[in-house]
Amino acid sequence: MSVPTSLTTRRARPAARRGGSGLSRLIVRRLLAVPVVLWILATLVFLAMRLIPGSAATALAGGGDGLSSEQVAQNQQQISEALGLDRPLLSQYLTYLGDLLRFDLGQSFFGGNDVLRLLGSALPATLELTVAAMTIAVLIGGVTGLIAAVYRGTWIDTTIRAVGTVSFSLPWFALGVLSIVVFGVWLGWLPVLGRLPNSLGYEPTTNIVLLDAILQNRPDLVLPWISHLILPATTLALSMAGYITRIVRASVLEVRGEDFVRTARMKGMAENAILLRHVLRNSALPIITVLGLQFGSLLGGAVITETVFAYPGVGGMVISGVLQRDYPVVQGAALAIALLYTLVNLAVDLFYLVLDPRLRKG
Amino acid sequence: MTATAMGSRGTTRRGTRRIARTPVAIVSWVVVAAYLLLALLGPLLVTGDPLRQSPAALLPMGSPGHLLGTDDLGRDQLVRLVYGARPLLMVALAATALATAIGVAIGLAAGYLGGRAEQLLMRLTDVALAFPSVLLIILLVAAAGAGTSSLVVGVGVALAPGIARLVRALAARESARDHVLASRMAGAGGLRIALTQVLPGTVGPLLVQVLTTLSIAAGFAAGMSYLGLGIQPPTPDWGYMVQAGQEFLYTAPSLVVLPALATLVFVVACNFVGDDVRDALDRKGTP
Amino acid sequence: MPPTTPTDRHLSRRALFRGVGAFGLGVGLTSVLSACGVAASDGGGGGASGGTLTVGTDATSGVFDPAFYTTLGDWMVVDSVCRGLTFCDFTDPDPKPDLAESWTVSDDGLTYEFTLREGVTFHDGNALTSADVLASLNRQLDEDDPSLPDGASRPFQSLGRNLTSLDAPDERTVRIVLQGPDGTLLARLSDIGARVVSKAALDQYGAEIGKHLVGTGPFRLAAATAGQSVTLEAFDDFVGGRPPVDRVVLQQVQDSSTMISSLISGAVSATQFTPYSAAEQLRANDAVTVHDTPYCYDAMLLMDVRRPALAELEVRQAINLAIDRQAILDQAFFGVGTLPEGYVVPPAMPGHDPSLADLSRTDVAEARRLVEAAGAVGREVRLMAASDTWHPRAAQVIAQNLTDIGLTVVSDSVDPAAFFSRVMDTEDPYHEIMVWERNSYVPDPDNMVGNMAVPRGVYGSSATGFDTLPGSERFADDTVAARNLPIGPERTAAYSEIQRRWAEEFMVLSMLVHSTNLVVTGANVTGVNVNALSTHRCFLEDASVGGA
Predict the structure, then answer these.
(1) Residue A259 included in any domain
(2) Domain range enclosing A157
(3) Residue C429 with chain A: CB contacts under 8 Å
(4) What is the pLDDT of residues C109-149, one digit of tens each?
(5) Where is this region: Disordered (chain C) (predicted)?
């Protein structure tokens, strides 16, 4: 957390210097790395799931009653065969990879729902949650960071930094539960669970509520949707906001000390104008990079937040998948999370390269 | 370990500025030291058995004989809080040490060697970073079976890539410095150069990162115990205490609030201490 | 009895109970005719109508199929969408007519002939015929049935073990011929696995039936999102009349503190997944009603006699005597339950016999003496418990109790999903003392004693190794004999004798408490069959939401 990593790691390498195609070469290289990263990850998750003791077949076989031990074992055996769990690990793995190449993520062990279809409904929900959280975090973090930088060294700065540090140290696991009790029950301001009220008939088209509200002409969806989003998104945003405060403060201060700002100041530009025209623009780069990296912890936090708020996203899918030993669901959801995160970071990298010519030229 | 002892290690050969100058920083150093003392000596400070159950369950705070009340199994909450410091700090410190060891090894090798080795090592860390740490830990710990040692390994492995990235960047920078190039031309061995010439230059920023990692590790350790994947009952552990107390949030909120607060204060103090070291380093050059 | 109109349905149902009760689970009698009374349809809570009732559940996988048990929440959906030949409403143990309006049983107790009710329609508009019943039951019996999805466990497959034939002489008659008499058949036909699905839908959807379940129940499946919720809508043509509420939503809530908050805030208006720890605070809260449902849930310890540490009967007896059941009742169940006076038959079940209370008494001094006599002081014993709900608290109390009588306890807390497979795995290092529970899905003592005291069942074999002890073979015949006695003192005595012998001579199962799943509803909710809900059964046809 100490150093905006990309500032130091993304040094201009000699390779990038050759010819004018440096940027596109870099982009291609980064793109080519994505499938490799995903493959390694898919393998790790595949193995990890099978190392976890317990199997879905036992849970499924447990539904019957009045059977002898042998019959239960036989039942388990039949279910294992049906689910392909009795086959050697290597053969299971090869099938899995083969399916993966055809974009077939398999079916849930619990009822045979297509994992891709499950993701189709869960991923938009998680995206809504994380984007909302990111927005809240950037708003809070950006404003406080800027103020802290402007009032550097004063009590305002100290207070903001202290509060920021406390906020990203908050025990993320207990935060959701506490906020439900305070805002959902004691104050009764906000709904405590789900994504939309159950009494509201909602038939998803894209499953992105805001989009569906427009497509289906359902303005009545918007307010309940926002009110359901506030608590989980804020819970998720809080620990990140403090971190953004820091980064914004640090990069604003760094840019402020640089030559061109000093030049502008000497030219007699007003301090506010400098702040807006030079400082903010130039400090945006490291901030965006950090946001990309932080997107990962946001997705991680979503796993817990979604479970606590009974929010129907990918994170909750992973947790119940792990609990039920539903391998295809966990594998699919993990891959989706990794892909999302990798793509976001790739986008940030590209953005960065496009915006900062220095990195291209070296 | 006292603040000054830590402080002398916190300064580098380049930075001579003393640490712990602001009141916040001083308090943070004291708090971190106090937690370490509590973890070491806690059992000597209170009388009572953290596991001993009694019929006097869910007594409120301030009850006679139970200053902070009792939990749902009638165990003294104060004793359990005090005993809870050790498992958390142990896991956090061990996981941080593991993360640092792995991270430094990978980062140093990559940064110093460069080329294909660097590519390979950095792809590996990319894979780890392509996945939220929380999920990584949940999977690792679930696969290895819940418990203290798998928690340490899970958290350690999940946090290593961050350190590896930093060390690699620093090492690459150091490697390009004149004195390293000079040693290299003089024909010194690779490992020797890496350890004697490159590594020292990374110590300052690394220390900051290690302190940050410690605070994250403590948060994860408590979080995983909260999820039932960490330290197992009946061992008193703050994360598990929060989880177990959660059902009494309306009737006995202190069962949740106190262990959560105990965790929070430690994590905050670690972060402030990290800030302090960083500030000290920032006066001299960039990390 | 003549056909009835809705107004006298209640009365005739009562009469019916008596009739079926006298009939006593169908041994020896030839015929019971009951042309009246669709079970459990008393017209609801004063005709309040409309609104949405949200029920909190453990999980939903978005697939609902009587041949495929997935989660309790999914099972509750099947329970609401489909009906079976018979019906247990959990006010008394007797199975009542449902899709079968009457049945006859042959003198030898082997042939059952069911006459289907007329005028029952499925949600897809088709009329119920015997072909629907056959198609639904055959899926449970035949593992190669094309309408079975991969992984289907066929929960009612045990019917096949004792079956000679299953056929339909005509459109309105279904005949089941058994190999040996089974006094519990009618009760078991009311279970969720025996629910009837539209054959037309089975033909149309095949293995996908779980996503398009079509039954005759009070609610039809409207929408489902795996991991989130299931929406059911009132079925206008339900044979018992349209339910008062328009919509039932089964909402997945996995975090127990969120469940408490949801109940208080009204986001959930009925659930049986309430943490026991919340009982007291919820009772004090005017927004919700905590129901005192009958105790038909056994919490117990299973002891594996194959482990050297538990080889001596004295040690197992000592463990049984050491347990502070009052502490478990107070601290793990928060008072929701009662001490196990009837050994494994809970108070809500016929056959409950408080004279067995001494089998679950606590006597620490005697326990210590037994441990010393067996030379087991300081012996290491291993204790395994799931890490959810009441288990960890109970396990901690038990660990303390066993330490107090001189044993050394090593505990393992297990992820609930892995627990059952570890109980089945006799090689597991912690397969020694296991904290477990059993729900009575069907209110018959056979469901407890008949399942747990048989040597070759899961309890007698995998879990405890009871079947390895000399003298255990007898219990197989004894439990079958008891099962086929008519409900009454003789049957109770038979079960009590089995239990006493089982406990005193073998002690493989130590009872902890009898409890119930804690049912809580919103204060504005009426008509929920809370007894059924407390055993994970979902009968909401009479439920209504006030002020809707």
Answers:
(1) yes
(2) 120-361
(3) none
(4) 999 999 999 999 999 999 999 999 999 999 999 989 999 98
(5) 142-163
